Amino acid sequence: MRIVLVGPPGAGKGTQAAFLAKNLGIPHISTGDLFRANISQGTELGKQAKAYMDAGNLVPDEVTIGMAKDRMEQADAANGFLLDGFPRNVSQAEALDEMLKAESMKLDAVLDLEVPEDEVVKRIAGRRICRKDSSHVFHVEYKKPQQDGVCDICGGELYQRDDDSEETVRTRLEVYHTQTEPIIDYYKAQGLVVTISALGKVEEVTARAMEALKSKADDK
Length: 220
What we know:
The chain is built from nine helices and eight strands. The protein is of the alpha/beta class and 220 residues long.
């Protein structure tokens, strides 16, 4: 299957993408991974992206699209892929359609993870990261450390990242609503969107997503 995953920040896209890609036997292609890989490998697109990022500017669509195209042409993506973080706006969605059309391919589904805005704020603003090891992540409500402000694993100090503050989260949500959310209507016009609730345990959301994708595939 060729799938695009969409949803607001805090919807759990990265977590769900990893599980879904494994269950479906297709690669998980995330924008963040594309940027890191191209920059670390010193590709021409990576050099262009780094120049924009170092200057504090947004990377232009054509650079992101070029990276995505290169990745989707790799052998492991021949039977499908799950895109996470791309397309990020309607112009990128249109470019993706053109890319796939040129290869006589098309998307099978666009999975929309739905989460109430207040829940998004609660999820992200409540995160606490360990200063010693950023892979140790806790939450003031959902995954409390045994001792306030102290990592259970290594004893490091837990802190809230600047971009996890409530004010920043609401700004990120506004960006999502104005830039990314319109692609849902774009894909609805093509009959591709399946919307599921991203509330509940990770495995419950994964099961819900797999069932929705299976139904979508059966409808074709």
